[in-house]
Amino acid sequence: MGKYALRRLLQMIPVLILVSIVIFAIIHLIPGNPAEIMAGPNATDEQLAALKQQYGLDQALWVQYFLWLKHVLSGDLGVSFINGYPVGKLILQRIPATIELALAAAIIGLVISFPLGILSSLKPGSWLDLFTTLFSALSFAVPSFWLAILLILLFSLHFRWLPPSGRPPFSQEPVAHLKSLLMPAMTLGIAMAAKLTRYLRSAMLDVLNADYVRTAHAKGLSRFDVVMRHAIRNALIPVVTVFGLQVGDLLSGAIIVESIFAWPGVGRMTIQSIGWRDYSMLQASVMFIVMAFLLVNLITDLTYGIIDPRIRYD
Known about the structure:
globular, mainly alpha, 76% helix
């Protein structure tokens, strides 16, 4: 497994380089220019030219990319065009909020999906199975931004139980911090639960109809032992794949949800960077998202061998 993980990590290098080239080109196609935003609407041509020269925006695009790559390889992600702070430091400040939101949403998704998915597969056609199918269909159909707005209207404006946005420091206001986390985590967790429930139910139905499960029943094992020792473990392989993709999406910052709830994570910073045309910040934010997906996919692949010892990494 160690050699396989090392090989996968080495394979990420050309992928990251290729992705960085594509992202760099796309970012510079966005209408507008950081110099125009920094200088303001009343800036003269001389002021714009000076700012472009200061930040290297007057050079050819390929020259700008190789200068950026040179700094990245030396551990320097650049400086934000807007506030002048190091980009790496700003991202490190936002990562804890994104990880916290991703973990909370993943816990909510697992707590909802596993009971619903397993129990509905054990009693297909029952009222619980119908409820699970309806829940998955509605959650798939409802966009996350619309669900977020509904939650704000219900819990913030109507009942006034939860704050509509923000993230108070946990060390100073722990209760307010947890309250501010609940709605964005629910928004992302419900969407994750819908996908996991659907895949877990389908995988469990396939496993429960397998020959080895009928053999286990014939040997006199209880239904609980058959489900827990045989069915669930074999049904987890496709579910782990879906869960890994969902976690990668959560770690990417859940851009829309973070923006709606003013959650100070990487996703919200990405949206702000687009509005400010902050090329350095936007490039680093998107690269973080790509790396999060690659690392989560690697961890997902390694998890297969833990769930099923028959899988070998040759």
